[in-house]
Amino acid sequence: MTPMERYRRDCSAFFARLGTEGPQPLVFGDGRWDRPVLMLIGEAPGEQEALMGRPFVGKAGKNLETFLQALRMRREDLYVTNVVKIRPTKLSAAGRIVNRPPSLEERALFTPWLMREVALVRPKALVTLGNVALRAFVADSVGRRHGAWSRAVVQAPDAAAFTLPLFSLYHPASVIYNPALKTVYAADLRALAASLGEGSDAPGDI
Asked: What confidence tens digit (pLDDT) does each residue in 19-68 have?
């Protein structure tokens, strides 16, 4: 059993013991889990992710393609995951099951598991999408942190804390709802690509 398989087993067992109502499949991270250049962290899986058991597919997958093209990287070169690993849902006014932002309780339950995941993967740097992912590490907003490098403290349970470079981006969904952010998001991607350096396998001087 690999360390990642052990992590998934332990995480699954923990949430199975909670006895949450209804089937809520866990959607684990995907990609290179042994010291990749980047670890991309989103908010939570959506409908397609929950159905396929894989993060960043469907609409999120198209956003990931844009990200990879900007950085001239392949999906298998990085590790992608979410803070919350179940799909948060609610009933719409029309009675349909739709996505919703993760609750504070869900974020509190899953953040320690995210920290264990980061400690296991040990990427060279983190890239967060949106406030939920950023605030797992830093008590600040994307509006203040986007487009620049900072340091994230990773505190996994029963392990010594360490820091990693962190680059914050707006969540791609926010660009859809607020078209004014499209230019900002594109500029931030260019800044991230430039800081990595063409042909580089590590973040620049952070």
From this structure: 654 567 899 999 999 999 999 999 999 999 999 999 999 877 888 888 99
- 121, 128, 120: which is closest to 192 by C-alpha? 128
Cβ atoms of residues 81 and 114 within 8 Å: yes
Q: Which of 75, 88, 11, 83 is nearest to 46 (CA)?
A: 88
Q: What is the pTM of this model?
A: 0.92
At a CB cut-off of 8 Å and minimum separation 6, what does 99 contact? 44, 46, 47, 87, 88, 89
**How many helices (H) and strands (E) would you count in the chain?**
8, 8
Residues 90/100, Cβ–Cβ less than 8 Å: yes
Q: Which two tokens stand for residue 184?
A: 């900002």
